């Protein structure tokens, strides 16, 4: 009889592929009790590649409901999840209040996160036309639970507001509400799609 699991297990030679199925470190490094997260720091380390040259330099104009923002092309790849993210977020000019915050769904003026995504693809933001609004699990992967205000890697995602960001995920008990993630210290909430105004950070697969 075999006496070791290693006789059954053949590791994937692709570290990036192998890491997808493994949980990430939360980012917490402070120990508060023996055996807690900060003590053990279980999981694999986060890894980002940041692109700022060539097609990722400069800005691209995105227009939503007649309002235009010069969106930076800088992008960051999460090497563990194999996702490319907009490094920056819209922070002015667009949105009902002209501050970068959008509705989830706007039946009147289409001044919402999906129109923003459609227009980003129409002008090939950062040279790509397959951006989308992230779902709950994707956005949560960006939370650095060891940081706050904002709770995110600020090298890969500079100038991130410590505020709420929409996800594309709808509440199963109330289809008029969608989930959002706070990047102040990392928590989940939900808001009415037609009245809640929050930021959005687009993602694409790589």
Describe the structure.
This protein has helices at residues 15-20, 37-40, 113-122, 136-140, and strands at residues 48-51, 59-64, 67-72, 75-78, 83-86, 164-171, 174-182, 187-192, 203-205. A hairpin with a 4-residue loop joins strand 7 and strand 8. It contains four helices and nine strands. The chain has 206 residues and is α+β, with helices and mostly antiparallel strands. The chain folds into two domains: 10-45, no CATH class; 46-205, no CATH class. It starts with 14 loop residues before the first helix and ends with a strand. The chain is 12% helix and 24% strand. A four-stranded antiparallel beta sheet has the order 1-4-5-9, with no helix packed on it. A three-stranded antiparallel beta sheet has the order 6-7-8. The relative contact order is 0.16.
In short:
The chain has 206 residues and is an alpha+beta fold. The chain contains four helices and nine strands. It has two domains: 10-45, no CATH class; 46-205, no CATH class.
Strand content: 15-25%
Taken in chain order, the helices and strands follow as HHEEEEEHHEEEE
Rounded to the nearest angstrom, the radius of gyration is 19 Å
Largest sheet, strands/sense/barrel: 4 strands, antiparallel
Tags for this model:
206 residues, alpha+beta, 2 domains, 4-stranded antiparallel beta sheet, 12% helix, globular, disordered N terminus
């Amino acid at each position: 009889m075999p006496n070791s699991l290693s006789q059954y297990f053949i590791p994937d030679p692709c570290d990036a592929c192998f890491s997808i199925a493994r949980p990430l470190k939360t980012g917490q490094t402070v120990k508060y009790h023996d055996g807690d997260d900060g003590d053990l720091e279980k999981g694999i380390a986060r890894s980002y590649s940041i692109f700022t040259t060539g097609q990722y330099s400069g800005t691209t104009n995105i227009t939503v409901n007649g309002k235009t923002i010069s969106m930076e092309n800088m992008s960051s790849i999460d090497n563990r999840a194999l996702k490319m993210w907009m490094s920056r977020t819209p922070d002015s000019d667009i949105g009902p209040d002209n501050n970068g915050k959008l509705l989830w769904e706007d039946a009147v003026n289409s001044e919402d996160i999906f129109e923003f995504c459609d227009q980003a693809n129409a002008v090939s933001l950062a040279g790509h036309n397959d951006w989308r609004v992230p779902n709950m699990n994707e956005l949560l992967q960006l939370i650095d639970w060891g940081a706050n205000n904002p709770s995110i890697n600020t090298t890969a995602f500079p100038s991130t507001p410590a505020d709420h960001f929409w996800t594309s995920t709808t509440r199963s008990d109330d289809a008029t509400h969608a989930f959002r993630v706070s990047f102040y210290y990392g928590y989940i909430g939900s808001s009415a799609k037609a009245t809640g105004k929050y930021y959005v950070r687009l993602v694409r697969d790589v």
